[in-house]
Amino acid sequence: MNKRLYTTPEGVRDVYDGECRRKLDLEAKLRSRLHLYGFEDIETPTFEYFEVFSEERGTVKARDMYKFFDRDGNTLVLRPDMTPSIARCAAKYFKDETGPVRFCYCGHTFINNSEYQGKQKETTQLGCELINDSSVIADAEMLAAMIDCLLEAGLKEFRIDIGDVRFFKALVNESELEEDKIQVLKDYIVDKNSFGLVDFLKEENVSADMIEIFKLLPSQFGGVECLDSISTITSNQEALSAISHLKKLYEMMKAYGFEKYVGFDLGMISKYEYYTGIIFHAFTYDVGEPIASGGRYDNLVGQFGKKAAAIGMTIITEKLLLALTRQGLLSAENSVPEIIDAQGTESDAIKKAAALRKEGKSCILR
Amino acid sequence: MRKITIALAKGRLAKQSMKILNQLGIRCDEMNDPDTRKLIFEDPEHGFRFFLAKANDVPTYVEHGAADIGIVGKDTIVEENRSLYEVLDLNLGKCRMCVAGPSSAKECLNNGSLIRVATKYPKIAKDYFNNTKHQTVEIIKLNGSVELAPIVGLSEVIVDIVETGSTLRENGLEVLEEILPLSARVVVNKVSMKMEQERITKLIRDMKQIVESS
To answer: Rounded to two decimals, what is the model's pTM?
Structure first.
């Protein structure tokens, strides 16, 4: 017997028994939550042309994608991410639409990350995208939808950290650093490495005032008060307008009653050019990585031929399920079907089973 | 109170970092017992838990959140390249990552010819030669006593940690190029930093004070 028939390749796995039911139930619950926000279901293909996901349009490196060729020699990839596909659809099917378009989706994504790191290569992303709306209300609705979904799933302790890439971009423009130096600076800020950052900026002869501001970025995170402390030390108009945007957002979160789940992190900047406004991640205990994330990407749809603002968020279903399991928040009420003995009394048993099933109760005939 | 777990890289670094923690009143006397076979130690009073791991594994524990905080050398952080916050330089165990070899090997570093590089740090070596020097090299991964490689003709040069350089000198080798300075760093899991912000930032602030005052 071929042993390979029994094992799945590294990074993919079977989902079965109660776990599969719990996952599908969770997905169904979250989708109906998203429907309440007016999002409409969409399905896109599992694989697409490589160009749809190429680096300026995605958040996954080209070498981390599963690539293959079609008969005509085109490069195809298994989607590493859902958003570029949705952006492509929006540009194609809603070309002349000027009002907001809302999509929600649930699909498998594939990232060919390195081996032996204990990470799955196939994950389920469930999320939504709101196209053609650049308002702060759209930002708030997106955050609210995410928080609502996490609450609906049964999660109790979690935190959404919000940042705004415009804040960092404004400061960088002021500092007049070169493109490759900006990348180094970004790495320091993303790693919250303020000591390395200060040495680097001194070497680059950035003004002392600017160093003071950049130095604060890795440590300015927490409640809404961190926005106030940073707005006192810069007079950069664009940076300040990003902060006032976040404050407005916070006020709206209060109106939803969600402010206790919200925090801010101005050092949260994307390594990719993809995001243009707010970005956010959701964290909880017992899972070492964000369980959900999202942000505003006003240039992406334009790359597919339709100029449109857009914002989206994605929940990684497996990670959410893992958090719920580890925190003991899943009710183990997988109902056991009633067993009906049909030996000799087949027609009675069949009628009984049919009646039970009509009432919505599960049963097994044997 | 949830326990905060700290992973320490085994060896001298663990002892030195415990000294800093002791100054903060965080004690774990069990750990000093040379006969103990325990792998995990606690300071219940302050809500900390410690374990010792092989240096290369510390970033892995922290990335997955199995440890909230790790103390490990910069060399390991760069080589492992995990997604972490690197929040504090402890200024301990200072040394340099270098290209070393016999002085005759200088030439092949300058003329960009294809050379063989033996190292315990294949990622750092590859990144340095490909992206900084733009030189095509063959990397040979070794697991220890890297200095042997140029002596017995396995490679032209090595990439390794140099502290005083005495091992190199005794074997007729010298530092040819410097790649990056190294020291011990405090790394933090990205989620723990947010979920336990208050306690972790306080700990780091306190450690920073001690490092700066010493």
So the answer is: 0.88
Residue with tokens 């340099």: B96
Instruction: Give the bridge partners for B5, in sequence order.
Output: B49
What is the number of H-type helices and E-type strands within chain B?
9, 11
Report yes or no for ipTM above 0.90. no
Please report where in the chains the tokens 């196209």 appear, as a residue: A131
Query: What DSSP assignment string belongs to B107-147?
Result: HHHHTT--EEEEES-HHHHHHIIIIIS---EEEEE-SS-TT
**Phi–psi pair at B49, nearest 5 degrees:** -135, 140
Structural domain harbouring A171: 166-261
Give me the number of domains chain A comprises.
2
Three-state SS at A282 = strand
Is the CB of B40 inside 8 Å of chain A's CB atoms?
A: no
Instruction: Please check whether residues B86 and B191 belong to one and the same domain.
Output: yes
With respect to residue A272, please indicate whether it lies within any of the assigned structural domains: no
Residues of B in contact with A221 (CB under 8 A): 194, 197
Residue A197 and residue A77 in one domain: no
Residue A19 belongs to a domain with what CATH number?
Answer: 3.30.930.10
- Choose the mutation target among A289, A291, A293, A327 for the interface with B, i.e. most B CBs under 10 Å: A289
| Optimal mutation site among B4, B190, B211, interface A, most CBs of chain A within 10 A | B190
Do A130 and A250 sit in the same domain of this protein?
no
For residue B83, the distance in angstroms to the closest alpha carbon of chain A comes to 8
Query: By residue range, what is the domain housing residue B121?
Result: 95-182
Taking only the tens place, the pLDDT of each residue in A137-189 is 999 999 999 999 999 999 999 999 999 999 998 988 888 888 888 888 998 99
